[in-house]
């Protein structure tokens, strides 16, 4: 031991605060972002494990009111159902294959080809791979493919865009040598290089325009004709309406489940089961409180969103106001993360349409002195409007769009326009001009 060094023991005490995230707290957090349908599934799963929890579903939707009478305020799920879209692409092609009179080995191979059919009607796998899987030689696979490509509508089972268009042109009697030459040089057409296309095909501009007019009448995605109607949008969790006292928001009671605590069922258990009964009853009561808290929190946040977005409700996307999670959280008296969770999973029905609640949270953009700041969503809407209204022969550059919007009161940089344009899937002005050239030639 080093001289002068002493060993001793001592105790020290320190106080530390920490948040213990219990299983119930985790579930309560998850409940905040559950849409009504998911909430129903969760409560149902809990009721299967707990004899004191009962899921009470809303009554069946009320039919639409007769003409001249007031329709119910709750969301009508029946009204959102689409009509029968008819047979799918798969069913249609399977029926057509059955009419080809193939023998058993060929029919089995045709099924492999059918399974590789993409929704838009093209063959989604290389022919060599399908031939191997079907146990066919490449020549036999080519022969089978040729028969499958006779199925209506023409263009099904094509492997490329050129082949898809060729099949249709052949079926319609359009496949002249010049038409075939154009199909062989589709990249030049995509680049709107009509002069280069004339040189490659050895034709004049007028002859080329005649081919392009016919080409425009073909369908590059024949399978899309069988696409079913898009599924109905799921019912919203919040419904906005306008009454005598102004805008109001309500929970969509037509899809909102409720938790019923069956306290009376505890009497049927023996005294020896008292610990189990007490624990299960406690869980049931907690779940009922947690669902009610979820509903009230959702309603408060929805009401604040509606209060701040009156311009949007009355005039549409161009009047969407800038709004942040923190602003709503401060106004409602909850944590910012709570607003984020609620807005991420729920839908709200408004007179302008049904939207994810999160779509109303958008940043503010700088405004000139005396002007009201615009939201990013409103500016994106304005960018789309300007592009839709532009002259096809003289599309607006990003700089021009930025100047127009800045003159309207919102300071906007060219790079911001470019970012919004990309978010909206709008091509650049150069690309739009190329498209206009091709369209004009047609």
UniProtKB/TrEMBL annotation:
Keywords: DNA-binding, DNA-directed RNA polymerase, Nucleotidyltransferase, Sigma factor, Transcription, Transcription regulation, Transferase. InterPro entries: RNA_pol_sigma_54, RNA_pol_sigma_54_core-bd, RNA_pol_sigma_54_DNA-bd, RpoN_core-bd_sf. Pfam families: Sigma54_AID (PF00309), Sigma54_CBD (PF04963), Sigma54_DBD (PF04552). It comes from the Bacteria. Residues 86-262 form the RNA polymerase sigma factor 54 core-binding domain. Residues 276-434 form the RNA polymerase sigma factor 54 DNA-binding domain. Belongs to the sigma-54 factor family. Sigma factors are initiation factors that promote the attachment of RNA polymerase to specific initiation sites and are then released. This is RNA polymerase sigma-54 factor. It comes from Cereibacter johrii.
